[in-house]
Design a protein that fits this description.
There is one protein chain. The protein has two helices and nine strands. It is mostly beta strands and 173 residues long. The chain has a single domain, classed as Ganglioside M2 Activator Protein, Chain: A (Distorted Sandwich). The strands form two sheets. The chain has a six-stranded antiparallel β-sheet with strand order 1-2-9-8-5-6. It has a three-stranded antiparallel β-sheet with strand order 3-4-7, with helices on one face. A hairpin with an 8-residue loop joins strand 3 and strand 4. The two termini are 30 Å apart. The N terminus and C terminus are likely disordered.
């Protein structure tokens, strides 16, 4: 997998790892989504999903290419999540698919040394993960969809993310 795709997948996986995920840019917990001209997120799941993302924060805000990025996710888990939970991640630029892959969430959490591991019991979680954004990340708008599934292949969580890395000279949308 390419380094830049890996970075975006990590960002997307961190979002989906709200079961297995203190930034400087917090927002009200009652906000259903957060969006700026550089990044945003929206819960695309249902009220019946066992994982609900309450907030996502990044630091620095906005994210900077070639610098460390810390992602903090607050989530509520209402059912135990066991080994076998997965996330389907789709990363696109416009209509072009850069990556479409299924990840084992418990394995990804272990590999990332996440503070939460499977089985994940019901409760409130805050998971913080940092990554170095490579200098090679193209300055484009990335759209990321993460759909998580329980070990029984039932819907677990869904989040849509956008990340816009703009050229330093661009002053328009």
């Amino acid at each position: 997998m390419h380094l830049r795709a890996t970075t975006l997948v990590l960002l997307a996986s961190l979002a989906s790892l709200s079961l297995a995920l203190p930034g400087t840019s917090q927002f009200a917990l009652s906000d259903p989504a957060r969006s700026t001209d550089t990044w945003g997120w929206k819960d695309c799941g249902s009220d019946d999903d066992p994982v609900h993302i309450i907030s996502i924060a990044v630091s620095p805000d906005p994210p900077k290419i070639g610098a460390p990025l810390t992602v903090s996710i607050n989530a509520a888990v209402t059912e135990t999540i066991d080994e076998g939970a997965t996330a389907d991640v789709l990363v696109k630029v416009g209509v072009i698919k850069l990556l479409q892959k299924t990840f084992d969430l418990c394995e990804e959490a272990r590999n990332a040394n996440a503070t939460v591991s499977c089985p994940v019991t019901p409760g409130a979680y805050t998971i913080v993960q940092s990554v170095e954004l490579p200098k090679e990340v193209p300055k484009l708008k990335y759209v990321i969809n993460v759909q998580g599934f329980t070990q029984d292949e039932e819907p677990m969580v869904c989040v849509d993310l956008t990340v816009q890395f703009r050229p330093f000279f661009q002053v328009w949308d």
